[in-house]
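ugh ok fine here u go
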Amino acid sequence: MSPSHTRPVAIVTGGSHGIGRCVVERLHAGGHAVLFTHSSPDAEAAALQAALDPSARSCRALRLDVTAADAAPRLFDAAEALGPVAALVNNAGVTGRLGPIEALDDADLERILAVNLAAPVRLCREAARRWRGRQARSDIVNISSVAARTGSPGEYVAYAASKAALEALTVGLARELAPHRIHVNAVAPGTIDTTIHHPRARRRTRARGAGRRAHPDAASRPAGGSRRGGGLAAVRAGVLRDRQRACGHRRPVARRSAVPPPEHGGRMLPASPTRSTAMSRVTATVRKPKSAEFKTRLLDAVHAALVASGVPETDRFQRVLELEAADFRYDPSYPDLSSPRGEDFVLIEILWSAGRSVKVKKKLLADLMQRLEAQGLDPEQVMVCFKETTWENWAFAGGRLIHA
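structure:
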């Protein structure tokens, strides 16, 4: 088998059926060579390989237990025989037996955690070891589930917990590996019509009025991305959510490709413009009396700093609480003030969507302090408190949760 010199290689675990098969087909059609693992009958995997590339030069099936201690290096070695590996899709997963928590036995629990969490961790570790230091962009996509948020009570709570852990892994690695041009995301589909779901669980989904189940191909198409910081928004956030789901509750967002096609140079390409998810609400608390001119200078400085950090100019929701001294009390020097707080002390509370990094907050604070000083306000008399919430908690008008 000769390496492919024209196709970047993608690894897909659990690629012989369901979501994994659709991911394999779309990646191959989009210009990737694909190595996919399977634990299903060899005939099923061989049929997919033959359908995409009978020569096995750009598509290869590999029977592999992803939980084996040496699975990660074996898998990457096999993939590198096809060419330079550019992407890893951690798709393989198991739910365990359907039932309440007391029915869960240790063997099932160990298997769920081994396949759904330990194996992706090892594969991500192997990817990081091999990809650090190279100039080309690389991608890791972890397939999560809406169960990470719903918990799947009475059905697959251990599976749901493993997927929530996978999302936490994704967020952490997205931030850790981004400086090395390794972009980490997760896709969390809703209920997809695959064999992973027990028939009784499917009936329960219908009974809850969750609607139809999506075809596996829906989870392999460009997924919705939550923009949580910077130009490579979905990468910073780490978590993407499938718009086509039966029982999830997620905001509508721009369409983004989970694994970018090579002809676009590996960039995340939005198909349509979207509003920033840095939506903010500002509350400034001061002691009476304060002039309208003081409030304007204060709020203008805060808004300018927020806009510079990525908040759209039109997303301006501000209020000033002007209180009597008896209703607004504060320590004059805590924790490290060189001069005491006076009557012009301001407490600024910024409520915005979750996902801002410490780096973003520090940059915003430095910018804000400069702008306040330029407005004639003393930065040492200003305390800033950040609060975060998810988009499901914003109802902009008429009680409509338009992002849920």
